[in-house]
């Protein structure tokens, strides 16, 4: 059945197969389809590379995979009944449970009938004569749509570094971001894990429970804070259920999409004892409190940051028995908070196990992968032998998933070429020369520096408003102006300039991918102020956008 046939009897315009093509069936794609179809009465078609809904949670099935956001705010809030009825079993929802939640959402809002699974979008070209997108799939199908919405996620393009002879390894190979659906059993095996980011921090304690011998290759030590996971208490749960509207309002207006507030007093103005008194309860409480709910000056001033770092270094020394290993696990050379803060359940303690070894590959990098293991540069061929290697080496973040698709706008311009020196957007949602294209939680929006479902809902609701406006005006296109985009790019650069974020080699900066432009990609306005800015744009008659038709190109 073609999409045209599928859309018969719907409101799709005759010149298009479907009003909107949506790429991806994670949180963003599902909510986008729901709003377009169920509240706007338009037709939408979702294409999803995976075999089920879930997006990042469909692929990231490694041991210990769970969200680092508290479960009561890690979900949709647009539907009060949905929010009340879904019960999370733990403070941090585990991957299976998040997937079950999204399957429930897809069923509840009757979304499955408009999702095509196991199909990857390979390209999309804007047809300037018809003001439509021609979207092509890896199944050879071409679908025309008025609007194109990328709901591809910021962390969905996995990165495996091109280690020499990587394909020669004869044992089992895994990537945390592309974990098999079948149970992986490491019992009695010698396992090597490369990487110590958030995925590795979650996986390592569980892999260590099964493996006979585990070697972790660390290039950069991470500031890891306890998760303090467990089932939420009955009293807390009841209080939250009684406060749906309050919680929704607070997370939408917050800095990061959580119920966390930054302290008014800075670390610089505080004594070491005061800092200890502030941070210790947050450390014991677990979660992002030390990172996103403490001293704001640590993001701007290295001296303030050093005071928080000292507190964290002391905690690591308390947890790790061997002083040499502890020193290696203590992050050095970059400030706390400018790299994504992983949460752990027993990460540091795992290195107290006699069968777990930590290898520093910053001072002595990986030379190559051999048929039986890993060798380092200055060890004269001596080898770490493994039955399995786990690449916990992260993602080509934010721009990576978009750049994989050949998206061509006006004049055939490729989006990835336009973004050659870093993303260029207006509001992190649109890009000049690419009419009717919306990037949900795209680069230069708060995105990965927020609790994602909160930002996703805001972006989708904004897209719905903008599309509604196109239709209201009898227009066919909406597009960011070059001036608005240039100003947004400059604004983003100005926001990050006084902070310490650019001083570290992080995936926020694209620094984990050789050759990628070194540009800070998320927007630092923060969730509440960014929402206010978007509301202002709408209130100011869609400032920064032009609306056009085939005959009359641009009317502001
Ligand atoms: O990836 P990462 P991740 N040689 O990029 C190392 C989200 N997430 O999958 O730091 C040796 O953080 C690399 O070293 P370095 C979250 O936002 C969320 O762990 O570049 N090592 C690093 O240690 C997170 O931040 C959740 O020096 C190499 C590791 O591989 C994001 O996803 C859970 C190397 C990659 O760490 C990414 O996390 C999991 C090389 N050539 C993830 N190349 C939850 O919410 C790379 N590395 C729970």
Q: Would you give an account of this structure?
A:
It is a single chain. The strands form five sheets. Strands 1, 2, 3, 4, 5, 6, 17 and 18 form an eight-stranded mixed β-sheet that branches. This protein has a five-stranded parallel β-sheet with strand order 7-16-8-9-12, with helices on one face. A three-stranded antiparallel β-sheet has the order 13-14-15, with no helix packed on it. Helix 2 packs parallel to helix 16 and helix 16 (452-472) packs parallel to helix 18 (527-539). The chain is 32% helix and 16% strand. The chain has 556 residues and is an alpha/beta fold. The radius of gyration is 24 Å and the shape is globular. The protein has helices at 3-6, 27-39, 56-59, 80-85, 95-108, 198-210, 234-241, 244-253, 272-285, 289-292, 302-319, 323-329, 347-350, 400-403, 415-418, 452-472, 482-496, 527-539, and strands at residues 18-23, 44-47, 115-116, 121-127, 132-137, 142-150, 172-175, 190-194, 213-218, 225-226, 343-344, 356-360, 366-370, 373-376, 383-385, 388-391, 406-408, 437-439, 477-480, 545-548. Mean pLDDT is 95; it is low at 1-12 and 552-556. Bound molecules: 3-acetylpyridine adenine dinucleotide. 3-acetylpyridine adenine dinucleotide is lined by residues 66-68, 155, 161, 176-177, 194-200, 202, 217, 219-220, 340, 361, 366, 392-395, 448, 507, 512.
């Amino acid at each position: 059945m073609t999409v045209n046939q599928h859309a018969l009897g719907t409101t799709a315009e005759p010149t298009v197969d479907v009003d909107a093509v949506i790429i991806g069936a994670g949180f963003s794609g599902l909510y986008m389809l729901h709003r377009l179809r169920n509240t706007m009465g338009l037709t939408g078609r979702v294409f999803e590379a995976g075999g089920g809904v879930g997006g990042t949670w469909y692929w990231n099935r490694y041991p210990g995979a769970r969200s680092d956001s508290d479960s009561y705010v890690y979900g949709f809030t647009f539907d009060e009944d949905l929010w009340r009825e879904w019960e999370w079993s733990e403070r941090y929802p585990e991957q299976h449970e998040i997937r079950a939640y999204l399957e429930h959402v897809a069923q509840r809002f009757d979304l499955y009938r408009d999702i095509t699974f196991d199909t990857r979008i390979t390209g999309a070209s804007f047809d300037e004569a018809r003001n439509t997108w021609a979207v092509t799939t890896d199944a050879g199908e071409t679908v025309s749509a008025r609007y194109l919405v990328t709901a591809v996620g910021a962390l969905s393009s996995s990165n495996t570094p091109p280690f020499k002879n990587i394909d020669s390894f004869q044992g089992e190979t895994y990537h945390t971001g592309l974990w098999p659906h079948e149970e992986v059993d490491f019992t009695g095996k010698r396992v090597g894990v490369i990487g110590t980011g958030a995925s590795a921090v979650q996986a390592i304690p569980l892999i260590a429970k099964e493996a006979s011998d585990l070697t972790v290759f660390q290039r950069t030590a991470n500031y890891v804070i306890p998760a303090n996971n467990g089932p939420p208490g009955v009293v807390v749960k009841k209080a939250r259920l009684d406060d749906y509207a309050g919680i929704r309002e607070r997370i939408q207006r917050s800095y990061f999409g959580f119920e966390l507030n930054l302290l008014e007093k800075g670390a610089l103005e505080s004594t070491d004892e005061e800092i200890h008194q502030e941070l210790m309860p947050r450390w014991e409480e677990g979660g992002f409190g030390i990172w996103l709910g403490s001293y704001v000056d640590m993001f701007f001033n290295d001296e303030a940051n050093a005071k928080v770092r000292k507190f964290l270094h002391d905690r690591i020394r308390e947890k790790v028995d061997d002083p040499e290993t502890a020193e290696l696990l203590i992050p050095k050379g970059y400030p706390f908070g400018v790299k994504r803060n992983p949460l752990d359940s027993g990460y540091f303690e795992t290195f107290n196990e006699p069968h777990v070894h930590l290898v520093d590959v910053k001072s002595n990098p990986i030379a190559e992968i051999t048929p039986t293991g890993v060798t380092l540069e200055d060890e004269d061929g001596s080898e770490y032998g493994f039955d399995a290697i786990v690449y916990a080496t992260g993602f080509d973040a934010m721009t990576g998933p978009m750049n994989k698709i050949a998206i061509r706008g006006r004049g055939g311009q490729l989006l990835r070429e336009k973004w050659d020196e870093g993303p260029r957007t207006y509001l992190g949602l649109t890009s000049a020369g690419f009419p009717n294209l919306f990037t949900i939680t795209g680069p230069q929006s708060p995105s990965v520096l927020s609790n994602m479902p909160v930002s996703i809902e805001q972006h989708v609701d904004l897209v719905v408003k903008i599309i509604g406006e196109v239709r209201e005006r009898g227009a066919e296109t909406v597009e960011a102006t070059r001036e608005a985009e240039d100003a947004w790019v400059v604004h983003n650069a100005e926001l990050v300039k006084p902070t310490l974020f650019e001083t570290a080699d992080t995936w926020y900066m694209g620094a984990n991918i050789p050759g990628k432009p070194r540009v800070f990609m998320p927007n630092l306005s923060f969730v509440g102020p960014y929402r206010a800015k978007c509301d202002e744009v709408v209130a100011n008659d869609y400032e920064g956008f032009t609306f056009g038709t085939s005959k009359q190109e641009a009317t502001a």
